[in-house]
Amino acid sequence: APIGRSMALRQQLKEAAPQLSASVPLWMLAFVALTIVLTVTERLGLSAELTTSWVFTFFGVSAVLGIVLSIRFRQPLVFTGHILVVILFGSLGSETSFPELVGAAMIAGAIILILGATGITGKVTSWIPEPIVMGLIAGAVLPFVADMFTSLGTEPLVVGAVIAAFVASQVFLDGISPIIPALVVGVVVAGLAGQFGEQLPAFELPQPVLIVPAFSIDAIVAALPVLIVLVLAANIPSVIYLRNQGYEPPERALNMASGGATIIGSLFGPMAVAIPTPVLPIIGGPDAGPIEHRYRASVASSVSWLVIALGAATAAPLAMFLPRGLIVSVAGLALLSVLAASLRDLVTGPLTLGPVVAFAVVMSDISLIGLGPFFWGLVLGTFISLVVEREGWKRLQDSASAESDQVTR
User: Fold this and answer.
1) How far apart (Å, rounded) are the C-alpha atoms in residues 90 and 103?
2) pLDDT score at 8
3) Strand, coil or helix: what is 371?
4) Contact between residue 90 and residue 140 where contact means Cβ atoms under 8 Å apart
């Protein structure tokens, strides 16, 4: 009997190996996401308590949602906090208060919930063109990437080592995310140079802080359209991909889950929950094994995010323990591809002038009638495209309509 159980265990491990392997990149992504969140909390000047609460909700809510829905539907339904939304909040922090960002996120979650329930999510992306949103995102991401090079001047040893390792791994380590060796080299160099803090933070369970939302026109009009488009622009192609893989994803339930989780999670820190389209092929594609077992990769990935959520209380002390240059450089390199993709969308059409205007406005310090760059970037960019780039606008609407029809089918 013991021999039989041992053989059965080995067989189970062999069957689970593809799913476990597929989940590893998302474990790495979780730590990279943590560095970005910590960078944003520093920009916003948040207290240790609010940092703990935000890290807990950003990682924990989406992790629990992914585990529950993946097991319930036996599909790779991984969810994450949308990192671009965090970056957006970091850019808006100088104009709006943290409770106002919470209020804007909760309203966005409510709208996504309603749109999911009515099944008209596919139409929204034609109302607010994604290229315009990517212009706004490029403007929001650029300061984080630029900050990496600013830190190169103040902490040349650590930041230089991280950048060098990132470049070298691109050349010599095919198939491995360059962020991983860059992070490892940065930690080693920082340790050898004695740049760590005095004491490594001890583990303790987090105590999330319930944040009373505040509602301001400035925060709502600046954040709301971008949040909705970012979430739906992630969920809609994710549903299409899962259908193409042979699954029958519950499209309405997924969008409603994103909206509901955004509302609940934002009570402890502003966030938006979505299915991360770029990583879905990793855990939901053929490399993750037989179609009926791929949901295990989603569960394993979500568990790694849950672990970070449970260790959220050490996040703020960890940011003090690690050299700032290490955190900033890893975050900047992780966002480099996002910046490149956003800028590529600005110049490849079908809309170009409007997205570039949106990008330029976000980089400015414009403030009219109490509204800041993100609002005016969205308004002016959309107006320019609607007036000047009507043909490109029509092609985008036709594409969004086709995607909506495919999801419905």
Assistant:
1) 15
2) 55
3) strand
4) yes
The span from the CA of 368 to the CA of 333, in Å, is 34
- Of the candidates 1, 78, 131, the one whose C-alpha atom is nearest the C-alpha of residue 283 is 78
pTM assigned to the model: 0.77
Asked if residue 350 has a cis previous peptide bond (ω within 30° of 0), the answer is yes
- Burial class from Cβ neighbours inside 10 Å (0-12, 13-18, 19+) for residue 369 reads exposed
3-state secondary structure 68-95: HHHHHHCCCCCCEECHHHHHHHHHHCCC
Q: Mark 69-91 as b/e (b = at least 16 C-beta within 10 Å).
A: bbeebebbbbbbbbbbbbbbbbb
Using the structure block, give the residue that is written with the tokens 């062999």: 14
Which residues, in sequence order, are CB contacts of 406 under 8 Å at separation 6+? 240, 243
Residue pair 255/77 in contact by the 8 Å Cβ criterion: no
d(CA 379, CA 399): 22
Exposure of 220 in the CB half-sphere (CA atoms within 13 A):
11
Q: By the 8 A CB rule, do 204 and 314 touch?
A: yes
339 vs 325: CA distance, rounded Å:
20
377 and 134 Cβ atoms separated by less than 8 Å: no
CB 128 within 8 A of CB 230: no
Report the distance separating Cα 376 and Cα 214, nearest Å.
22
pLDDT digits (tens, 9 = 90+) for 97-133: 999 999 999 999 999 999 988 877 766 656 777 788 7
Of 341, 339, 343, 330, nearest in space to 148 by CA: 330
Low-confidence ranges of the chain (pLDDT < 70): 1-17, 22, 24-25, 28, 122-126, 175, 177, 200, 370-371, 397, 399-409
Q: What are phi and psi of 80, to 5 degrees?
A: -140, 160
φ/ψ (deg, to 5) at 371: -110, 140
Residue 2: CB atoms within 10 Å: 6
Report the C-alpha gap between 152 and 396 in whole angstroms. 40
Residue for token digits 């299915």?
275
